[in-house]
């Protein structure tokens, strides 16, 4: 990976550093949250509710977040969102210390966990929308693929390679420790973003909220390829959340892994993500963006099918590696395409509409994952029921991939 962009661009260097630190904390909480839920209850539906609460803001708040992002200083918005997340995560520490699991009131504790998870998700919506819209102001447009690839590689190293196994170690020390660590990383990320110096941006004059929102809706409706990508992303993310939500039970009950083993399993996905971030820009140039997206769809379906029939951690690790690689390839191509195509004064609103469809399906996917396991267990047994989100996801993605072959065509970036 060429480090020239990181070395020579001060603002990009602070942005990458902040994202790396923040994602390290996210990687720790990505294991700690479901692990805490699994200590409170073994009910798959209740466990899935924590994932639903985290992703529900992407459905409820994404559209207004786009308007807010285009109205305000995007750097300040990122700082405030990270500080808010730091305070909320300290609230989880207090909750665990006050009522350590197991508890005789699992529903009450899960409800409290869901409330905090929802607020964390709401802050994430604002922070991530602002971060994605600020990147074109930080790097030259011709460097967007390279910048996105490097950014996501570093995020994967921190959030998926280092974070999950570190979470296993921190959980072994004491259950509140990973959440306290997460709070520190959010505060550190806020400080680094505050150091960025971005030229003043002249925001359009404020008009009625619905008028500004409708401008983003009209723009994306007039660009068929972007809203097609948004719908495809929504289906992909729904399948991903259905499988990811149940992975903690799959890991414990089928693979027989503990907290450290589960963290190492998630790390395999990080390796695929890191490699994807480094290689995806080159793959996109070599194959072209359209063929690259088709390749990503094939990878998704094959990896979910592999997990659905696997009983050995090594097979699941390879599948998670492949799925993460495909995800980074998809992201590098589609996000760079949007950043290059959407006008800056509409970038927040159009991105929010895109993410409403693309990420708003995540809470639905999380519910589906838990519901499929709960409803199929009486007739299929626990083992096969835990496999159904993966087998079902593979089937859906095969159909979606066939649709994408005939409906998605992206222009070349013109760079060899």
From TrEMBL:
Membrane topology note: Multi-pass membrane protein
Subcellular location: Cell membrane
Main location: membrane
Presence of keyword Cell membrane: yes
Transmembrane segments: 12-33, 45-63, 83-101, 107-126, 157-177, 183-204, 225-248, 254-279, 291-310, 316-335, 356-376, 388-410
Record's keyword annotation contains Cell membrane: yes
Record keywords: Cell membrane, Membrane, Transmembrane, Transmembrane helix, Transport
InterPro entries: MFS_trans_sf (IPR036259), TM_effector (IPR010290)
CDD domains in the record: MFS_MefA_like
UniProt cross-references to Pfam families, sorted A to Z: MFS_3
Protein name: MFS transporter
High-level lineage: Bacteria, Pseudomonadati, Pseudomonadota, Alphaproteobacteria, Rhodobacterales
């Amino acid at each position: 990976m060429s480090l020239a962009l990181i070395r020579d661009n001060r603002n990009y260097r602070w942005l990458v550093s902040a994202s790396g630190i923040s994602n390290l904390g996210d990687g720790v909480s990505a294991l700690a949250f479901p692990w805490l839920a699994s200590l409170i209850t073994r009910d798959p539906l209740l466990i899935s509710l924590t994932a639903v609460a985290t992703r529900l803001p992407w459905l409820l708040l994404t559209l207004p977040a786009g308007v807010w992002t285009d109205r305000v200083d995007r750097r300040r918005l990122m700082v405030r969102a990270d500080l808010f997340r730091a305070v909320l995560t300290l609230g989880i520490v207090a909750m665990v210390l006050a009522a350590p699991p197991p508890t005789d009131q699992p529903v009450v504790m899960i409800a409290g966990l869901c409330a905090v998870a929802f607020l964390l998700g709401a802050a994430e919506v604002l922070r991530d929308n602002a971060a994605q819209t600020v990147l074109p102001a930080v790097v030259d447009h011709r460097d967007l693929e390279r910048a996105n690839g490097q950014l996501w590689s570093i995020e994967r190293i921190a959030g998926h390679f280092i974070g999950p196994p570190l979470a296993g170690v921190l959980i072994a020390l004491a259950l509140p420790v990973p959440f306290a660590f997460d709070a520190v990383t959010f505060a550190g990320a806020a400080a680094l973003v505050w150091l960025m110096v971005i030229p003043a941006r002249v925001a359009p004059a404020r008009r009625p909220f619905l008028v500004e929102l409708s401008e983003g809706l009209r723009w994306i409706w007039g660009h068929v390829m972007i809203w097609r990508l948004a719908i495809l992303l929504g289906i992909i993310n729904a399948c991903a959340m259905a499988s990811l939500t149940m992975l903690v039970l799959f890991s414990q009950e089928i693979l027989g892994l503990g907290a450290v083993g589960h963290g190492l399993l998630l790390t395999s996905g990080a390796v695929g993500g890191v490699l994807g971030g480094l290689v995806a820009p080159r793959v996109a140039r070599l194959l072209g963006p359209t063929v690259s997206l088709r390749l990503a769809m094939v990878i998704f379906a094959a990896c979910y099918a592999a997990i659905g029939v696997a009983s050995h951690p090594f097979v699941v690790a390879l599948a998670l590696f492949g799925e993460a690689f495909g995800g980074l390839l998809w992201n590098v191509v589609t996000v760079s395409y949007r950043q290059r195509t959407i006008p800056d004064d509409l970038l927040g609103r159009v991105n929010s509409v895109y993410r409403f469809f693309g990420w708003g399906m995540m809470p639905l996917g999380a519910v589906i994952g838990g519901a499929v396991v709960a409803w199929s267990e009486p007739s299929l047994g626990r083992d096969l029921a835990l496999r159904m989100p993966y087998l079902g996801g593979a089937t859906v993605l095969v159909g979606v991939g066939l649709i994408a072959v005939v409906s998605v065509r992206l222009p070349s970036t013109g760079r060899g």
